[in-house]
Amino acid sequence: MASRNPYEDPDLWRWAGGMEGLPEATTPEGVATPPDWSPIRRGTYDRFDLAGALAPGLLLALLLAFLGSLAADSLAMTLGLEKGPISPVLIAVVLGLAVRNGIGLPKVYEPGLRLCLQRILRIGVALLGIRLSLATVGQIGASAAPLIVVTIASALLLVRWLGRAMGVPGRLATLIAVGTAICGNTAIMATGPAIRAKDEEISYAVGTITLFGMLALLAYPFLAHGLFGADPALAGMFLGTAIHDTAQVTGAGVIYEQQFGAPEALDGATVTKLLRNLFMVAVIPLVAMTAREEDAAPAERPRVQVVPFFVLGFVAMALVRTGGDAWLPASAATGWEMLVANTTALSSWCLVTAMGAAGLGTDLARVRAVGLRPLGVGFAAAAIVGGIAATGIALFGS
């Protein structure tokens, strides 16, 4: 005789957890939205999807920027100082490095970190232009140009020769030389296809440049103060010439400004680095034509943007500052000063956030795969560029 107890029915448990009566699950990731959706609904859905992808990394970088500022202010209050003895950028970078290399970072954070390094950083650099007039930009650029030319030429010649002497493949040595001399990872990515570099060679060069650029970001502000502390403008010129990547230069400039209360250093570093970036237009095609390739196939034409958009943005903001200072009436002076101050503060937050993302994006485990000889060439390249920059400024900086 069959049992009348319904709980003894084996089919009953097939539906346990079925959540009958609840709404259907949302569209799974990777599944196309229904075709009957209107364009407005589909566009809104796509924007929600993008926001969801960017939010984790962006919020984590913002959190590090906030913690860096909070820790610096708290330390200043504890010591009874007006300004903290440690820069918020320095704290944010160290926290990012600790999280990435001490705990690890899931892939879900990577889109937001890329946004910080590819968009927010550039916005921050462009907004820095509000601090300077066009006359000041031209004056700094004219002073830095000869040093930039000498530094780039020396680095390209010496680093490529040193790479061959140490047995490093020619294309890898060329990538390290270009990355050190001009614009860090951007120059490497533009030069790699042009000289038919292998993927692992590009990866090794990026890892090497990232490592020594990050070390320079942390150490060079204090070295620059020791060498040129009496003239912050010269310290900024040193930072803009000796450090590899735009993100690292602006980060070092912000550290110097926050650490030593010298905004002239950040201004000098930014203008010098942006001018240095423009040399990609001439140098990378020249390197592609002269590099010794292991195969006879013609090289691809390097894709180099003539003038990066954030450089144009920086110049545009300097033009705004020049026009505002010259033409606004005295009655608008207070509002204009507030606008400049708020724009500068927004730029600072963008840069601190990007530097937190830079720390989170630096995986030191990649460096172990590079090998000792490429690391030796990268260290020598950083030392050559830094030494030439420091010597040139010491001799002719005045």
Please give a handful of descriptors for the protein shown.
398 residues, mainly alpha
Structural commentary:
This protein is an all-alpha fold. The protein has one domain. It is built from 14 helices and no strands. Helix 2 packs parallel to helix 12 and helix 6 packs antiparallel against helix 7. The longest helix has 41 residues. The chain is globular, with a radius of gyration of 26 Å. 44% of the residues are buried. About 4% of the residues have low confidence.
How does the SSE layout of this entry go?
Blueprint: H1 39-79, H2 88-103, H3 110-127, H4 134-165, H5 170-194, H6 199-228, H7 232-242, H8 246-260, H9 263-278, H10 280-290, H11 309-327, H12 333-360, H13 365-368, H14 372-396
Provide the structure class. Answer: mainly alpha
Shape: globular
Terminus-to-terminus distance: 106 Å
Share of helical residues: over 70%
Radius of gyration: 26 Å
> Helix count?
14
In percent terms, what proportion of residues is strand? Answer: under 5%
Would you report the number of β strands?
Answer: 0
Biggest sheet architecture:
none
Which consecutive residue ranges, at least 5 long each, have pLDDT under 50?
17-27, 293-297
Short description:
This protein is an all-alpha fold. The protein contains 14 helices and no strands.
